[in-house]
Amino acid sequence: MNSTYNINRKTFAKSAKLLCSRWLSGLRLSSFLLASTATFAQQPISLEKAIELAKSNNIDLKIADKEIERQTVLKKTAFQPEPLQVQYQGGQFNSADFDHNVSVQQFFPMGNITKANRQLQEELVKLAEKRKALSSYDLEKAVTLSYYQYLYGVSIQKLNSELNDIYTKFLKNAELRFKTGESGNIEVISAKAKVKEIETQKAQLEYDLVIYQKQLQFFIQTDENIVPDDKTSLQYTVLNEEGNSKAESLMTDYYQQQISVSQKEANTFKAMRTPKVGLGYFAQTIDTRSLYQGFTAGLQIPLFGGVNTARARASAISISQSQLALDKNKLTLNLQRQELQNNYAKQQKALDYFQKEGLQYADQIITTAQKSYANGDMSYWAYISFLNQAIDIKKQYTEATHNFNQSAIEFQFPTIKNN
Cα separation of 79 and 74, whole Å? Predict the structure, then answer.
């Protein structure tokens, strides 16, 4: 007999006792966890509803809305007249008598400065909207990943239940064979240890599901104890072209909007080099007995316009920077898309194998091994070997589904660089 299966009875019994102790500890922890969360009714929702709630509740998107609102309010600052100048003069400036002089003067912008300011502010509003669109895209990706992470935990839990059923049947067969004298007590101990191990893992999986649920709840940012709908397919469906075109469109729009803002900034700085016209009114007394009135007009001419000229040139440089950043990130996105597509195809191929062949082999191995062992046609060690092989296939299928979902979501939502 192979030395791998030459198990010492005392050592195995000791291991079984340790596993039983761990199982009881895990069961107590699981009971405490379930008791602490039982007061919150779980609300199953679809992925579409989860994304909708996230976009409605997410604080980052609310901050983005406030930024759009702030920039919209600032559109009213397009017309920027100089502060009203009011001056009073009193004293002996005309004669020995104490006379009074009051003057009011107001300067107004000329040329296209008001139009340039308004256009700049309109572009800043659009830029804030583009930033929000990027944040919304990232949020949708995060919610989708978190949603399917929870479903992965559910699939692991289902596999655990299936394994529990398999080993429970194995335990019954082992106990029956032991009573009839067909096998030793080692088979019963082994089966009990495996059942307790699976039940301990079940308690740990309860914790994992709570963690996954809280991650989803964090992105949706709600007090409701929501969970994914258990009717949702465990396999994510990707829309290739839609996802990639959306990412490229969002990224292009964002950088082109940055270019538009820089262009309007340059126009604004250029317009600031035009003069401002001023109108005024004055009233004064002479010899304290007569009131004289008059009007004034004047110009404010920016003789030293080098500052605004430099600012206009700096904005022109910003245009080039944004264009270079757009070209760079387009290249990055295309390379990322190719990498994600290859990984997606790789995971799809692995998943196809398990769906078309692997799972069928696993079920056939389990069914055949159980019948053969129950009929006494298969030794205990051969049965365990075949059972472990089938279980490993099922575990690999669960992991393959999870890996496929992760790659599909990444392919659907490639990362957008916006810096």
Answer: 11
Q: What is the DSSP letter of 357?
A: I
CATH topology of domain 3-412: Outer membrane efflux proteins (OEP) (1.20.1600)
Pairing mode, strands 43-45 and 85-91: unpaired
Domain extent listing, the chain: 3-412
- Cα–Cα distance list, 229 to 133, 150, 270 (Å): 27, 10, 58
Other residues' Cβ atoms within 10 Å of the Cβ of residue 417: 14
Residue 214 and residue 207 in contact, taking contact as beta carbons nearer than 8 Å: no
Q: In degrees to the nearest 10, what's the CA dihedral of 134, 136, 138, 142? A: 180
Q: Are strands 99-109 and 85-91 parallel, antiparallel or unpaired?
A: antiparallel
How much is the pTM? 0.78
Report the alpha-carbon distance of residue 20 to residue 66 in Å, rounded: 57
Q: Which two tokens stand for residue 5?
A: 């299966």
> Angle at CA 8, nearest 5°, toward 7 and 11?
110
Q: Which residue has the tokens 């126009």?
A: 267
> Quick one: tokens of 282?
């004055």
pLDDT tens, position by position, 130-153: 999 999 999 999 999 999 999 999
- Name which of 231, 229, 226 is nearest 213 in CA terms: 226
Strand-pair partners of 112? none
What does the DSSP 8-state code read for residue 325?
Answer: H
Counting every residue written for the chain, the total comes to: 419
Distances (CA, A) of 281 to 100, 168, 286, 294, 299: 14, 101, 17, 6, 15
Higher pLDDT, 309 or 242: 309
Output the CA torsion sign for 171, 174, 178, 179. Answer: positive
Which residues, at least 6 apart from 269, have a Cβ–Cβ distance to it below 8 Å?
308, 309, 311, 312, 315
Residue pLDDT, tens place only, 162-194: 888 888 887 887 787 777 776 667 878 887 888
Whole-number Å distance between alpha carbons of 188 and 182 = 12
Tell me what percent of the residues of the chain surpass a pLDDT of 90. 49
Going by pLDDT thresholds of 50, 70 and 90, the confidence category of residue 31 is very low
